[in-house]
Amino acid sequence: GAVVSQHPSRVICKSGTSVKIECRSLDFQATTMFWYRQFPKKSLMLMATSNEGSKATYEQGVEKDKFLINHASLTLSTLTVTSAHPEDSSFYICSASSGQGHTEAFFGQGTRLTVV
Amino acid sequence: GQNIDQPTEMTATEGAIVQINCTYQTSGFNGLFWYQQHAGEAPTFLSYNVLDGLEEKGRFSSFLSRSKGYSYLLLKELQMKDSASYLCAAMDSNYQLIWGAGTKLIIKP
Question: B103 to chain A nearest CA, in Å?
């Protein structure tokens, strides 16, 4: 399958700071990227869907000013958690698709964010 | 509303067979996915069913019945490395994935 690289895999930051997570498709052009959040023993929750060159579509309840998503190229999307708080601590996962919907989406390795 | 149900945890013995069930209710249907997720890692794709019936891939098989809103993942010849969470996800008419909470599979020697 195609390779999606997510970086960093783990990050610890202080409360009030911002953290940027990168998601790269290494061997295909990702027209659509999805950002998920997963709490322990819970299902994956879709946060937002981004299409290259346009604004991300956020799911209900997700603060777009807090979780900034940029999808400036066909191989890179970034998620920035601004003014992080301990409740933002979670596992964040991206997936990238070269086609419509999720049918051909591949997952990144995930980022474990801990806000102290 | 949209909903996915799967058991929280299952235990099986190395070398045996285990079936993980999943029932779903979605607005429209564009297929059902099974993913494997080891602790602290991202999910990895196992199977995709959109037509009724059984799809076999090596030790893993997946079954779908659209009329019953039901799927199962069958794992044969269980190995210790199969200990993981197995996530069921259904795609609705808007191509949105609705995720189950996952089934934690514990394999005992």
Answer: 9
